[in-house]
Amino acid sequence: MVAVAILAAGRGTRMKSDLPKVLHTLAGRSLVERVLDSCSLLDLDRQIVIVGYHAEQVKQALSHRPEVEFVEQTQQLGTGHAVQQVMSVLARYQGDLLVLNGDAPLLRPETLQKLVEAHQNKQNAATLLTANLPNPQGYGRVFCNSDSLVSHIIEDRDCNIAQQQNRRVNAGIYCFNWQKLAESLPKLSTNNDQQEYYLTEVVDYLNPVMAFDAEDYRETNGINDRQQLSAAYDILQTRIKDNWMKAGVTMIDPGSITIDEQVELEPDVILEPQTHLRGTTKISTGSRIGPGSLIENSQIGANVTILYSVISDAEIAANTRIGPYAHLRGGVKLGESCRVGNFVEIKKTTVGANSNMAHLSYLGDATLGDRVNIGAGTITANYDGKQKHPTTIKQGAKTGSNSVLVAPITLGENVTVAAGSVVTQDVQDNALVVARSRQKEIPDWHQPEE
Ligand code: UD1
Ligand code: CA
């Protein structure tokens, strides 16, 4: 039996932020969510998050996870004090308790699984994740009797100069025999530089306590300030990008590319420099994205090209070409083999297959059929100052350059709109509509003299 308690009550003073530290995001997910997700390979009986600073905000941010229970630590008197708060909640609990710092977002699920396995195999009182850091500054140092039997943890600020030389650090990730921990928690003192109840002091009362080294020390990085947040982002990005490259994605200048963790890519996708993929974006095989594109929460079909464009909440079918300089947003669906060109903005619009809108257009709240050709500069005037109105353009219709379609309006199948028209009424199938004044020519016109 394993339960988890996540320490998320601290303010995170060193972040210099009004937002609780654990709600700062790293590649699309908050730190505390990342810590929760690092337990994904464990079969957890309980998931407890200890909240304090801006507790309501933290609860709200996790409200989509009904399995999470919250325990309040109204005053933040230290990590040991935080864990003392779960004693009443777990009074009759018999299993092991994982305690995780809410600011350690890089932990991999495999590592936690191994930590718990080692703990249970050895029947330890406590097992803690440790790492040998090139620069251990700021971390609690772990002192061992033998190779892995821990005797003490001393916080950086409580270490003397000799103790500071120890590079083996406490990651703030622990597996405890809960009953034994519960017996030790009341013994904690505040006998340290910060005069706080340190969870690490329980090591003095428990036996045996084992240190378990992380395979990759970077997993144990805690986030205390914005620099560490940014360093963690780099580590995570490298991890994400390496995985996609191993899975068959080509990246040109990966250092300039960013990819959120939930993004899914198929083999033979090519990502060009300065491409940013966010949220739940999925990209199918053969597509070439970038240079210079931002794609958010969008589904991109196979063999699509997207050049210097910004796309959010869109579904793009196969073989469509977008950009340069297109902006798609707010629920756009594009059919197969469409062409969206320079300076085209499309909002909340569905487009059939083989349709083109190649230059300088705005389409908002519109539904286009197949084989529609939107001439350069065509605009749907969808907003009357108060309300948005729909435009329907049926299959095979063609709009001339610089036409304005004043919504609500429907253009029938195979309609042709003359260039420069301002169309205000529905047009029936197969019609040509000219909605502009006829050209007038006055011969022998004398220009006024200067
Ligand atoms: C802690 C460890 C240190 C370890 C480091 C790893 C202690 C005493 N020290 O130090 O050995 O190397 O993590 O990153 O545990 N929190 C609460 N309530 C509190 C205080 C803190 O919930 O009263 C939470 C914070 O929100 C945070 C976590 O506990 O998520 C760790 O607190 P933090 O102050 O960052 O501890 P460190 O000084 O980094
Ligand atoms: Ca910390």
Protein model, in words:
The protein has 450 residues and is α/β, with parallel strands linked by helices. The protein folds into 2 domains: 219 residues, Spore Coat Polysaccharide Biosynthesis Protein SpsA, Chain A (Alpha-Beta Complex); 208 residues, UDP N-Acetylglucosamine Acyltransferase, domain 1. It is 15% helix and 32% strand. The chain contains 7 helices and 41 strands. It has an 11-stranded parallel β-sheet, covered by helices on one side. Strand 2 and strand 3 form a beta hairpin. The longest helix has 21 residues. The N and C termini lie far apart (96 Å). The model has no long low-confidence stretch (mean pLDDT 97). Bound molecules: uridine-diphosphate-N-acetylglucosamine and calcium ion. The site of uridine-diphosphate-N-acetylglucosamine (UD1) has 31 residues, from strand 1, helix 3 and strand 10.
